[in-house]
Design brief:
The chain is an alpha/beta fold. The protein contains six helices and 15 strands. The protein has one domain: 4-Layer Sandwich (Nitrilase/N-carbamoyl-D-aminoacid amidohydrolase), CATH 3.60.110.10. Helix content is about 25%, strand content about 30%. The longest helix is centred in the last third of the chain and has 15 residues. The protein is globular.
C-alpha cells in the first residue's frame, strides 16, 4: 500500500480555498499513491476554536466534495483529515475515508476532545472500522491516541491498520513518538499518523508524521510536507500468526 502523507503547514490568515488548492497541488505533483492522508482540521486550524462554526461544512460541502473529485482523478483512497462537520444542528470533528471512486468508505467523529475543542464540538460515542481492499482500517483523531481502550476496541473489531490525523503540539512531541509506537505494538497493527506542521494561533505543531509497523518498527518518521512510503501489509498477518498476542487476551 503506497501511502502519501501530507503534513500540511498551517498558515494563519490563509483562506480555506487557498489551503485546498495547496492540497490539490501537492497530490497532483505526487501521483501514484494508493492512499493519501491529511491532518486534523487542516482547513481551519485546530487551535482556531472560534473559527470552527464559520468554517463548518456538511459531508457534501466544499472540502469533502473537492477531495472526492481528487480521489477519482488519482484513482486513490484519501483519508481526508478532519473537518468541522455540521450535522443535526451540532458540530463534530469528523474525518472521512474516500475510496478510489470518491465514495465514503468510512467516517469517524472524534471521541476524546482536547482543551478549547470541548466548547466547540460534540464528542462521538462510536468507534469506527471499515473494510477496504487493503484490510480493515480503524480511525482515530489526535488526542484519541492517548486512550488505548479505543485502539483495543478497534482491534477487537478486526482493525489491521490504524489511521490517525493530528494537530499534536510540539511541546508534547515525545509523547507523540511513544504513543504511536505503543498503539501499534499493543494491537499488532500498522499505525499511520499525519500531523500538521507550522504554528497555529501561537501554538507550534509537532510537525512529524509516522508509519509504524505492527511489530513497532518505525518505517517512517518525517517532518516534510509530503512523504511517501510503500507498506507490505502481508507482514502484519505474518507477524500476528508468528506471535499471536491478541489470541491470549483474557
Amino acid at each position: 500500500m503506497k501511502t502519501g502523507i501530507i503534513s500540511l503547514e498551517n498558515r494563519d490568515g490563509e483562506k480555506k480555498s487557498e489551503r485546498l488548492e495547496r492540497v490539490r497541488a501537492i497530490i497532483a505533483n505526487h501521483p501514484g499513491a494508493d492512499l493519501y492522508m491529511l491532518p486534523e482540521l487542516w482547513n481551519v486550524g485546530f487551535f482556531a476554536f472560534g473559527d470552527y462554526d464559520a468554517a463548518a461544512e456538511t459531508e457534501d460541502g466544499e472540502t469533502i466534495s473537492a477531495l472526492r473529485t481528487i480521489a477519482r482523478e488519482q484513482n486513490a483512497y484519501i483519508f481526508t483529515g478532519s473537518i468541522a462537520e455540521k450535522r443535526n444542528g451540532r458540530l463534530y470533528n469528523t474525518a472521512f475515508l474516500l475510496d478510489r471512486r470518491g465514495e465514503t468508505a468510512g467516517k469517524y467523529s472524534k471521541t476524546h476532545l482536547f482543551g478549547g475543542e470541548k466548547n466547540a464540538v460534540t464528542p462521538s460515542k462510536n468507534y469506527s472500522v471499515c473494510d477496504t481492499e487493503f484490510g480493515k482500517i480503524g480511525f482515530s483523531i489526535c488526542y484519541d491516541l492517548r486512550f488505548p481502550e479505543q485502539y483495543r476496541a478497534m482491534a477487537d473489531m478486526g482493525a489491521e491498520i490504524f489511521l490517525n490525523c493530528s494537530a499534536w503540539p510540539k511541546s508534547r512531541i515525545e509523547h507523540w513518538r511513544i504513543l504511536n509506537r505503543a498503539r501499534a505494538i499493543e494491537n499488532q497493527a500498522v499505525c499511520l499518523s499525519c500531523c500538521s506542521r507550522g504554528t497555529d494561533n501561537g501554538t507550534e505543531y509537532a510537525g512529524i508524521s509516522y508509519a509504524i509497523a505492527a511489530n513497532g518498527q518505525i518505517l517512517l518518521e518525517t517532518n516534510r510536507e509530503y512523504s511517501e512510503i510503500d507498506i507490505d501489509l502481508s507482514e502484519t498477518k505474518k507477524y500476528r500468526a508468528e506471535f499471536p498476542v491478541l489470541k491470549d487476551k483474557i
